[in-house]
Amino acid sequence: NSFNDGGYRPNVSYHYNPNVSAYHYGVRHPMKPFRLMLTDHLVIGYKLHEQMDLYETRRATEEELLNFHSADYIEFLQRITPENSTKFADDLKKFNIGDDCPVFDGMYDYCQYYAGASLDASRKLISGMSDIAINWSGGLHHAKKYEPSGFCYVNDIVMAILNLLRVHSRILYIDIDLHHGDGVQEAFYLTDRVMTVSFHKYNGEFFPGTGNYDEVGVGKGKHFALNVPLQDGIDDESYVRLFKSVIEPVIAKFRPTAIIQQCGADSLGCDRLGCFNLNIKAHGECVKYVKSFGVPMLCLGGGGYTPRNVSRLWCYETSVLANVELNSKLPDSLPFRSWFQPDYSLHPNLGDRFENKNTKKYLDNLRVQLLENLRYLNQ
Ligand code: TV1
Ligand code: CA
Ligand code: ZN
Fold it and tell me: Catalytic annotation on 180?
């Protein structure tokens, strides 16, 4: 446990390319890459960049994308544009292009940027230059080998894990996005070298429809996937308690040599697509808890559809990772400051929109089921 002893500051690197925030999925589409620019302004406004190594990231190469994705899918992503897409009608169907994953200008470049940043970040962990590496533009956990899904075109998480597997023996993936981390789970469902744990809303219908607690892995991978299905309205206290009571034994038993945390912000209260009641501090507490184990860590973004809250969350989590305490009053000089009205606070109250449908009985029962799965992990 090398860096939870108060004074010690881990070496933190922040990986970002401003170009990634300029892409548009479409005017009505909830995914707004613009939120990454707001996040970056907050990080710089609070002077957090002075506490980290900053890297302007490069684009992932075709070869790197091919480490996970199929050649015909990548070729399709390279070729398709809004102008020529009518000529590709068959391919659009074959590759699941539609409302969730539209063809937009520069789509392939966008993919290269966010994946390149996750690969750069994983490289800093491998070289030991960073203890913690951050890429808020990554975390697109639904993309599959052969097709896009749920706003995700290429799976930067899978690519970063494949990179880390070259030197790390056991990798833990933790996903606190509102949605099930199905693409990452599927990619490593058969292996005991990557353990995936996702917390998400689940009722069998909610996107992507998977992630019940009985999905635990197959073959060698059996018991190396863990799913925490939750109902609407979960609050700070029950979420953080459940998170810690699951992650503590997972880390003790699996003994990961590296951890990737996907920090999707749609699990916050008041998210445009969300249904939980989490506040920024509780979400951040989950990140702080993982960090306290002192294992090399890659922190990624993901969902998050209310940009003013996404950016506050990821700025706050950056400060948690860099071990810096922030004033909750936002800096006076801040581009786009009016986006944060009327409170101009880092910690607006997001916690009381939904009724908590997770009864004590439901959560206690779930915890027992999950801990039962972990009993098989003694390796
Ligand atoms: C265009 C315009 C697309 C308005 C999509 C919400 C839109 C959604 C839109 C939307 C929307 C989803 C489904 C239905 C699959 C479909 C980044 C056939 C108001 C990681 C992805 C959610 C979440 C996909 C991604 C979901 C992430 N919800 N308005 N689409 N079926 N898709 O339900 O995990 O956060 O909603
Ligand atoms: Ca999740
Ligand atoms: Zn999500």
Answer: yes
> If we measure between CA atoms, which residue out of 352, 96, 358 comes closest to residue 203?
358
pLDDT score for 8: 64
How far is 314 from 39, CA to CA, in rounded Å? 6
- Catalytic: which of 168, 180, 200, 283? 180
Task: Provide the CB-side half-sphere exposure for 24 (13 A, CA).
Answer: 5
CA–CA dist 243, 234 (Å, integer): 12
Helix (H, G, I), strand (E, B) or coil at 225: strand
Contact 135, 60 (CB under 8 A): no
Quickly count: other Cβ atoms within 10 Å of residue 325's Cβ.
Answer: 6
Neighbours of 206 (CB within 10 A): 16
Nearest CA among 283, 267, 10, 274 for reference residue 134: 10
- Position in ligand 1 atom list of the atom nearest CA 180: 34
Joined tokens for residue 305 = 């559809």
| Per-residue pLDDT at 116 | 99
Residue 369: partners with Cβ closer than 8 Å, 6 or more residues away: 213
Which residue has the least CA distance to atom 27 on ligand 1? 303
Nearest CA to ligand 1 atom 9: 29
- Nearest one of 349, 312, 340, 347 to 46, comparing CA atoms: 312
List, for residues 11-30, the tens digit of each pLDDT value: 999 999 999 999 999 999 99
The pLDDT, as a whole number, for residue 1 is 43
CB hemisphere CA count around 268 (13 angstroms): 31
Please list the ranges in the chain whose pLDDT falls under 50.
1
Residues 260 and 298: beta-carbon distance below 8 Å? yes
Q: Which two tokens stand for residue 26?
A: 């479409």
Q: CA separation (Å) from 32 to 21, 24, 36, 272, 307?
A: 8, 7, 8, 12, 7
